[in-house]
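Methods — Computational structure assignment.
A single polypeptide chain was analysed. Its primary sequence is given first, followed by the predicted tertiary structure written as structure tokens.
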Amino acid sequence: WVAFTSTNAVAAVTELRAPPSHVRIAAIGRATAERIAAAGWPVDLLSPAADARSLAHAMIAAGANDGAQVLFPASAIALETLPKALRAAGAHVTRVEAYRPLPVTSNAGWQAAFRAGPPDAAIFTSPSAIEGLKSALGRTLFSTFAETVSASAVGTTTAAAIDALGFSRVVIAENTSAGALTESAAALLRP
């Protein structure tokens, strides 16, 4: 098995080699699956929901247990949710760092844009995206942002991170497609 939980991991791995013929490929969401397919790799399993727990359960049900070998290319800061669940089911998981998100520093452009007129809604695709915006805006502006802006999340992990920061309203996108993300943001803007 190769388990992909982000499009960045897909890009890092698929640019290095052709698709393996003897390995099953699992994707966490529709956008990740589309990126895998665009690289010419097959997608054998698509998680029913865009979160690591759902992917783990689907993989275990499909045979990623009891001695199965799983390669998990991931961000340097990816959570251990997927490998932990697979290991608990008896799989042997090899995690490799596929990419490292760059730290974001305070950004005068983002701060000026927020002060000029904050958005009504924001879409977050990962907890690290939230942390990046928090770093760009600075603590004070980010607190105001969280209090006044509604947020859409991709998956329950991102939603939990948003909720923990006290956002006024949070919705979870149905899946990771552009249409679902747009619809979730639109839902935030409806009265």
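Note: Strands lie at 2-4, 25-27, 45-46, 69-75, 92-99, 121-124, 150-153, 170-172.
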